[in-house]
Amino acid sequence: MSLGEFFGFGGYSRPAEGYMSAEHLIFVSCLTLLMIVFAVVWGLRNKHKSDRQKNHTLIAAAIAIDAVELFKIVILCFRHEDPMHWVYVLPLFLCSIQLIAIPLAAFSKGRLKEASLDFVTIFGVLGAVLGTYFAGNNYAVYPVFSMDNVFSGITHTIAGFSALYIMISGLASMKKKNIVFTTAILGGFCVAAYIANIFTDCNYMFLSRGDGTPYDIVFNLVNGNPVLYPLSVVALFVLYIAAFYGVWFAVTKKKRTPTSVEVKDEITV
Q1: Who contacts 251 (Cβ-Cβ below 8 Å, separation ≥6)?
Q2: How many CB atoms lie within 10 A of CB 266?
Q3: Residues 6+ apart with CB under 8 A from 159
């Protein structure tokens, strides 16, 4: 297979193997396995190091995910012979928000860093799963071993790696005071995506239709209502954030420190 065929110049001559085909599942499973192994190895290795040292791995992930995506956008502009094609590949999908969130988590400071770390933690693994196993919008159209799917798989699993690494290494703060800030990051992107969808024929954040993804379930439930559907998608995002925080707090809840009275009673006994 030539490079031109891999990058899709002139279109792909090979047919798509198909969504949920054996080729699709084997490919994304290999990527997912690598994602988990690297996250566990680096996470455990850096678990007891300083936050500054832990951050070095996150910086590398931020540079890698943006480099791959920028290269993909440049190729797509050449492939479509349209220098403005980037308008149709803006980072306004739930998964592609990580192109901004991971660098913010790696390079910012203070409250913004904490909220960005939490955002990556909450949506990184979800985006990795949705963007690989459930990306019917890609695998039903393009061959598995093509730029469209290989690069997409790499960026999604880098996001998943970052989320797992943050959790395992202990970088996640998941403070209650950051819930509003984390939700606001998502809300801002949803508004931007909705506006972009109005002025283009894109489907950013899948706020217009499901496009072969699990969002089709919601789309069909509301009969494609142009108001109820995007509101339902956003509501699902918010519910997911609430559920994630709820599970996180339940799992990481520390043992209650005994009061001085309780300590005194124990000593008396």
Answers
A1: none
A2: 9
A3: 65, 95, 98, 102, 120, 123, 124, 127, 128, 131
Query: What tokens were used for 110?
Result: 């203070």
Tally of CB atoms within 10 A around 103: 18
Query: For residue 134, what is the DSSP state?
Result: T
pLDDT > 90 in the chain, percent: 60
Q: What is the pTM for the complete model shown?
A: 0.85
Identity of residue 234: V
Q: Are 98 and 159 in contact (CB under 8 A)?
A: yes
Cβ(1)–Cβ(13) under 8 Å? no
pLDDT digits (tens, 9 = 90+) for 212-256: 888 999 999 999 999 999 999 999 999 999 899 999 988 887 544
Chain centroid to CA 175: how far? 20
In 10 A of CB 65, how many CB atoms?
Answer: 24
Report which of 162, 141, 144 is spatially closest to residue 153, judged by C-alpha positions.
144
Q: How far apart are the first and last CA of the chain?
A: 79
Q: Distance of CA 200 to CAs 6, 61, 86, 160, 203, Å?
A: 28, 31, 12, 29, 8
The SS3 of residue 193 is helix
Amino acid at 165: Y
Residue given tokens 């198909």 in the structure block: 18
Contacts of 212 by beta carbon, 8 Å cutoff, 6+ apart: 19, 136, 137, 140
Torsion sign across C-alpha atoms 78, 21, 140, 231: negative
User: Could you tell me which of 6, 261, 269, 28 has the C-alpha nearest to residue 128?
Assistant: 28
User: Does residue 156 contact residue 60 with C-beta atoms inside 8 Å?
Assistant: no
Using an 8 Å Cβ cutoff, are 173 and 32 in contact? no
